[in-house]
Design goal:
Order of helices and strands: EEEHEEHEHHHEHEHEEH
Number of helices: 8
Structural class: alpha/beta
CATH topology: Rossmann fold
Strand content: 25-35%
Distance between the termini: 39 Å
CATH architecture: 3-Layer(aba) Sandwich
Largest sheet: 6 strands, mixed
Number of strands: 10
Number of domains: 1
CATH superfamily: P-loop containing nucleotide triphosphate hydrolases
Shape: globular
């Protein structure tokens, strides 16, 4: 059985008197250990699809199943618990809390699960050391480079040991070299730990790291294996 399964998913938003269909009957299966890049033009439904996969929203019609849980049957508290246990989020803008140190940012999701301070500090230190940031535990986000902040963000996403990492344009605010290091880290998590990586990107260069490409156009998805000769331009050319 697929880890994530979307069946004929429709998502509609009401904009005044107009109804906007962000997803129009999308079907998608993602298995444990897949590395998937979601690509499509602006307004194609990428963010809405990500919200469905991450249990941040529920469909207007159709069915979304995450680890055998039908999201439409869960309460808000149950959805929050499912996200906490199963999904780690990595964002383009890092979304770190500016008044917290790197270690405190990483430990924060464990606080919501009721972990002791000792557990939180040990786990967050272990992850930051793994990210090469063992000497930056007490640094504030403003004292870290963009690449360091993104590694803190990845450590935070891993702190509850989720099966799924959802990365939304994870290299969007990084230079090419730093972005490649972040992508190599995601690939390592996929290959060595079996994490399921689902990444929204506009960058075909980043998509090269994925095993599958999900094209989304006008709210309709198509999943295909990435071809070895998949053509791409560099991030510099793309910009």
């Amino acid at each position: 059985m697929a880890l994530i399964d979307l069946e004929d998913v429709v998502k509609e938003y009401q904009m005044g008197e107009n109804t906007v269909k962000a997803l129009r009957g999308s079907d998608l299966e993602i298995n444990q250990g897949d590395f998937v890049a979601i690509m499509g033009p602006s307004g194609s439904g990428k963010s809405t699809l990500m919200n469905m996969i991450g249990a941040l929203d529920v469909p207007t019609k159709g069915k979304v199943t995450l680890d055998d849980n039908d999201l439409s049957e869960l309460s808000e508290n149950e959805l929050a618990r499912l996200r906490s246990e199963k999904v780690g989020f990595v964002f383009q803008k890092f979304n770190l809390i500016s008044s917290m140190t790197a270690q405190e940012n990483v430990a924060l999701p464990m606080l919501f699960r009721g972990s002791s301070r000792k557990e939180r500090m040990e786990r967050s230190k272990e992850l930051l050391e793994r990210m090469g940031l063992g000497n930056r535990l007490d640094h504030m986000p403003s004292e870290l480079s963009g690449g360091q902040q993104q590694r803190v963000s990845i450590a935070r996403a891993l702190v509850n040991d989720p099966e799924i990492i959802l990365a939304d344009e994870p290299t969007g605010n990084l230079d090419t070299e730093t972005g490649d290091k972040v992508m190599e880290l995601l690939k390592e998590l996929n290959e060595e730990e079996g994490k399921t990586i689902i990444m929204v990107t506009h960058d075909p260069h980043d998509a090269q790291y994925a095993e599958y490409i999900v094209d989304i156009t006008d709210g309709v998805t198509t999943k295909k294996e990435k071809e070895d000769n998949y053509e791409y331009t560099s991030r510099i050319q793309d910009d």
